[in-house]
Amino acid sequence: MSERRYLVKEMFGPTLQGEGAHAGRACVFLRFAACNIACHWCDTDFAAEGAQKLGADEIVARLRELDRHGSRHVIVTGGEPTLQWDAPLAAAIRDAGFRVHMESNGTRPLAGPVDWLTISPKPQFHTGSIALAPGVPADEIKVVIDDTVDEAVLDRHAARWRCEHYFVQPCMDDRYAHHLARTLALIEARPRWRLSLQLHKILGVP
Ligand code: SF4
Prior knowledge:
This protein is an alpha/beta fold. The chain contains five helices and nine strands, in the order βββαβαβββαβαβα. The protein has a nine-stranded mixed sheet with strand order 3-1-2-4-5-6-7-8-9. α1 packs parallel to α2. Iron/sulfur cluster binds next to loops.
């Protein structure tokens, strides 16, 4: 087993996946610390402060403990999880029987396999040195809708990633009603894109 230690911000569950094609599915969460971009409306605490350095065996043991309903389904997120994800950790978690669903910002190739990859691109927040990584095979694309996203942006993302599921999700900041109205208008203009709501926030689950 890998000797590497991974910077884990939190693990929790059992809970529900709140977003995308698997919304409503029972799962546990593995959240890594650190991100390579800084979206100004980011609602996730991925700071290194309070994070723990854990080995793969410790992560697997904790996921098993949390998954007391036996979903064997883990959402791997961050921060940006590809900064830390690697083949030994993927093998350890999948050997324990978990399906791995990851959400990435799409700027880095994966160093280990997953069973489902959500790309949530945020190119409006990249610095000059960061670009979307070429050839990352997505299972779903999820675009958070703020004022910077229009039909042309959605068209570019749809041309870049060929997959079955394309989601638009209103940014849940203090202009939520405005973003939701824009999201619904974009769905009318581009019906390939479907609505994703952050169910966990609406339901008040972690
Ligand atoms: S890519 Fe995701 S985790 Fe990173 S700053 Fe943006 S919203 Fe937050």
